[in-house]
Amino acid sequence: MTVLGTAETFKRDWVDGFVTAYGREVRKVPDAYGVVATDVPKRGKVAVVIGGGCGHYPAFAGLVGHGLADGAVVGDVFTSPSAEQVHRTAREADGGAGVLFGYGNYQGDVLHFGLAARRLAAEGIDSRTILVTDDVASGPSEDPASRRGVAGDFFVFKVAGAAAERGDDLDGVHAAAVKANARTRTFGAAFGGCTLPGAAEPLFTVSDTDMELGLGIHGEPGVRTVGRLAATELADELVDGLLPELPSGDGRVAVLLNGLGRTKYEEMFVAYKRIHERLTAAGLDPVHIEVGEFVTSLDMAGVSLSAMVLDDELAALYAAPCSSPGYRSDGRPAAPVRPSVTVDDTLATPQHAGESTVDRALTAALRLIEANEDELGRLDAVAADGDHGLGMTRGMRAAVTAARRCTGPAEQLLAAGTAFADAAGGASGALYGVLLAETGAGLRGEITAETLADAVDNAAAAFTTLGKARPGDKTMLDAIEPFRTTLRAAVHGSAGRSDTGADIADAWRKAAQAATVAAQETADLVPGKGRAARLAERSKGHADPGATSFALLVTAVGDVLGGQN
Amino acid sequence: MTVLGTAETFKRDWVDGFVTAYGREVRKVPDAYGVVATDVPKRGKVAVVIGGGCGHYPAFAGLVGHGLADGAVVGDVFTSPSAEQVHRTAREADGGAGVLFGYGNYQGDVLHFGLAARRLAAEGIDSRTILVTDDVASGPSEDPASRRGVAGDFFVFKVAGAAAERGDDLDGVHAAAVKANARTRTFGAAFGGCTLPGAAEPLFTVSDTDMELGLGIHGEPGVRTVGRLAATELADELVDGLLPELPSGDGRVAVLLNGLGRTKYEEMFVAYKRIHERLTAAGLDPVHIEVGEFVTSLDMAGVSLSAMVLDDELAALYAAPCSSPGYRSDGRPAAPVRPSVTVDDTLATPQHAGESTVDRALTAALRLIEANEDELGRLDAVAADGDHGLGMTRGMRAAVTAARRCTGPAEQLLAAGTAFADAAGGASGALYGVLLAETGAGLRGEITAETLADAVDNAAAAFTTLGKARPGDKTMLDAIEPFRTTLRAAVHGSAGRSDTGADIADAWRKAAQAATVAAQETADLVPGKGRAARLAERSKGHADPGATSFALLVTAVGDVLGGQN
C-alpha cells in the first residue's frame, strides 16, 4: 500500500523535493513539470531531453546531469507528460544545437513528444527522436517498432548523453542513440504488483505462487506465467529470453540487472551469479556490469535483465564519466573477475552417526534442533529477528562436521564450539560456541559424573562472563543454571556409589528435565507478530529462545548417554 | 514473500554475484565471507573494516572502495559475522597501519568483532573500534551506548574512510569516526515488514492502517504506533523525533533520507520536500543531502531520517570524493536551492457553476466524471495502468478552470482542450484535448443544430487522424462514431422545423444515449486483476475506458442543454 503522497499533488511534490535535495545538479523548469541540469543551456551542445511518466526513479529525472541527460520531462505516475510540458522543458534545455528526445515507445509519449517536436520546429528549434524499444516481451522481433521501452532506456540515454557531451552534432548524437537502441534488449519478470500513489488497492497483483515473465513496467500483462522460481531458475529464464534476441557482435556486452522496486539487492546478486555464468558460457564478455535500481516501477517486485551489444564506440560512450543524482560513473569500465572459490561453509548434513559418544550426542542434538527449527524461529521472531532456528541448525551441522575431524571428547568439543560460533554467527553463536568449547576444556582427563559437573560449571561461568546475563533475566542462562545445579546435586546424590555411566546418564537427564521446565517458563509464548504482542512479550522478558534450544540440546545428549539414541 | 535465494546458501551466493558484478572494485577474501577493495592492502594506510549481518545492501559490502571502506565482513541475514570471518577479512585488509573496525552497536557484532580484535592484537595488529549508536529510538539520550546503529552507519563510515584516505594514523581515523558518530542521529518509521530469504512468512508485519515509529532495521519493535500518515505528517514526525536529539553546531548538517527497501523513491522526495522546509525553519543549513537507499532492511517498507552536525573537518571528510559500488561522489558538496515556485497545476475545484452554457456543460461533465472516477480507474486497470479516472478528473478540472478565463464557446472550448491535454497527460489526455478544441473550432459563428453537428464531425475526424483508431477497434472511437452519426441523423430529422435550443438538446441527448449504449458494450467488464483476466479482456479488446468517459461527458452536456442542470 502506498503511504506517502496523494495522487493529485504527487508529481509536483516529489519534483520539488528532488530539486531541493539535488539542487547542486538540477533545477526545475519554470512553470513546468520538468528538470534541467543547473548549467544548461550549454551553448552549442546538443540537448538530450528524456522523459515519460513518473514512478520509475531514477528514470527519468534522476538521470539529468553531467554526461547524461540535459533535461527530463515528468509526467504523472505511469502517464506521459503533456506536449506543453515537453515543449517548455526542451526550450529550457536547448543550447542552439538542437534537441535529442529520448523516451520509451508508448503511445502517449509518442503523441505528446511528437506534438512538442512539431511546435519546436515551428519555432526554428531542430530536434530528433529516439524511441527506445528494448522489451523483447512486448512485440515480435520482426516488428521492433511494436516493442516498449523499459530498462534499456538507461543504456540509450547514457550513450546519447556521452555523445552529446563529447560534442557530436544532432545527427551524430541521434545516430549513436539509434545504434545503442538497435543493440539493446531486455527481458524481465515480476513477482508482485505495485500500488499507485493514493490508490487504495494494488494496480495489479501476481499470485504468491507465480512469477510473470515479460511483464511491463506499468503492469502490462506478461507473456507467460510460471511458478515461483529459485534464483538460478529465474536467471536461466531471463538469459534464455534474452540470448536469442541479442544481435551479433564481437562478444562484448554491457549488462544491467535492474530491480523494479521491492526486490532485495542481495537477491539480485544471487541471480546475477548465475546470469554471469550463463552469459560467459554463451561466449559473451560482460565488460560493464551494473546491478541495482535504474528504471523502477514504484514498489513492484521483480527484475529485468538488459544487455547492450558493444562495439568500440558504444563501449567508450557507455563507459564515459557522468554524474547525476541517480547514476554516477568515474569512467572506469568494469573488469569483472570470476567468482572466488566459495567457502566450505560446512553445511553438509552428516552422512551417518559418528562413533564416539560426543559424535552421537552432537548428532542427536542436531536432529532435535532440526526438528524444532521452525518453532525456534517463531519464538525468536517474538522480539528479535526470527533466525535463531536457522542459526542453531547451521551451527550444529558445523559442530557435528568439525567434531568428526578430531578424536577425544575435549578436542571434539573444542572444535565443535569454534565451528558452531563460526557457522551460526550472532550472539547466540558465540555463546553456544563458548558452552561447547569450555565444556570440552573440562573433559581432558577421565570422565566421571564429578568431572562432568565441573566441566558444566566451568562452561556456565564462561558463558555468564561473556554474555553478561544474570539469573532472572529470562535468558538462556535461566535454563543453564537449573541444569548446572541439578546436575551437581544429582552427582552428589550418587556420591559413594560406583560412578558408572548409568549414574552419569541419570544425573544428566535429571538436569535436562530441570532445564526443560525452566525453558518452558521462558518460552511459553503466543507467537504474536504485531508490535503489541511483541512488546508485551519483550516486557515479560520472553525474548530469548536460547533457553529452549539449550534444553533441546541437553535433552538429546541425555538420551544418548542413557543409550536411547 | 522472498523469491530468490535459499537461507543456507544465500550469503555465499550473493557475495559471489557481488564480487563478479563489481570485480573492478572489490574482491572476495579467500575462504571467508568478506570483501576487500581490489587494491588492498595499501601499505601504510589505516584499513577501515566494516561489517554486520547482510540484508542491508549497499551497507556493508557495497561501501567498499576508494575513499570509503577497505573491507567489509558479511554475516548471515541480520546476523553478526563470526570472529573468524572478521579476523580473516581484517588480516587481508591490513596495510601495516592498523585497522579501524566500524559497525552498529549490536551484541553479536560487539562479541565477534571484539574477539577478532583480541586475536589481531595477539598477532601484533593494532585496531580501534567505532560502535555506531545513531538510532535515537533505541535508547535514552542519557545512555547513548544503549543505542543501536542504523542509517547513521553511512555517515560514520564515509568520514572514517575519508580520514584514512587522506593519511590519518589509526588514532586520527578513530577520532574522526568518534566525532562523526557523536554528531549523528537517526529516527525512522516503518509501514511494512520484511521477509527473510527462504522464509515462508514475514519476519514481522505492520498493520495496513499503522506506521511504527522508531522500528529497528531488523524489525526490533518501535517506540510508538500511529495511524498511516500523509507525507508531510510523516516528515513532521521524523523531524520532531530528530531535532531535540541533535547536538548543537554552527547549523550546517548533512542529511540522509534513507529508504528501507520497498518505499518508492518519488515518495521519499515528497517527504523530503517537507523535511527540508522544517529543517531550514529550525535554523539548520542542509549543505549535503542524499535521498536514496543506503542502509536497507531487505524489503521493509519505511524510511529513516539521519542528520550529522557538521564542522569544517566533518564537512570536508564527508564531501571528499569516493567510489564504491553502492555510493560514488565526485566530491562536490551539495548546494541545495529552495524549491522553485510550484506550478499552478489548476487542480482547484471550481467554486461555483459558471455562467455560459459551455461553463455549465463542462462543470456538469466534471461532476459526472468525478462521481465515476473510481469506476473508470477499475475499467482502465483491466488492461492498462488504472489511472484513467484520475486523469479524466484532473483534465476536466483544468478544462473548467481554463474555460472560466475566456469568453465565447469557441475560445472557451479551445482553452479547455489545451488545458485538459496539459493536465491529464497521456494518450487520452491528448485525444480528449483534441475533441474539445476541435469542437470549439467549429463553433465560431452562430450555433445551430447543423453547425454543432458539423463541429462534432470535425472533432471526430481530427480524433481519428491523431488516434489512429478504426471503428471496431473497441476504443473511444466506437462511442464517438454512434454519437456523431446519431447526432447528424437527429439534426436532419429536425430539418425544416425551427432550429431551437430544444431541437439541439433533443438531438444531442439522442446521440448521447447512442454513445452510452456503445460504451456499455466495450465496458462490460469483470474488473479482474490477475494476468489471465487481464489478457482475456485485452484479447476481447475491452481495454479502453475512454468510451465510457466519453459517454459520461456527452450525457452531462446533454442534461445541461436540456436545462436539467
From TrEMBL, chains A, B:
<feature type="domain" description="DhaK">
    <location>
        <begin position="6"/>
        <end position="327"/>
    </location>
</feature>
<protein>
    <submittedName>
        <fullName>L-erythrulose 1-kinase</fullName>
    </submittedName>
</protein>
<dbReference type="InterPro" id="IPR004006">
    <property type="entry name" value="DhaK_dom"/>
</dbReference>
<keyword id="KW-0418">Kinase</keyword>
<dbReference type="Pfam" id="PF02733">
    <property type="entry name" value="Dak1"/>
</dbReference>
<dbReference type="InterPro" id="IPR036117">
    <property type="entry name" value="DhaL_dom_sf"/>
</dbReference>
<keyword id="KW-0808">Transferase</keyword>
<keyword id="KW-0547">Nucleotide-binding</keyword>
<dbReference type="InterPro" id="IPR004007">
    <property type="entry name" value="DhaL_dom"/>
</dbReference>
<feature type="domain" description="DhaL">
    <location>
        <begin position="356"/>
        <end position="559"/>
    </location>
</feature>
<dbReference type="InterPro" id="IPR050861">
    <property type="entry name" value="Dihydroxyacetone_Kinase"/>
</dbReference>
<keyword id="KW-0067">ATP-binding</keyword>
<dbReference type="Pfam" id="PF02734">
    <property type="entry name" value="Dak2"/>
</dbReference>
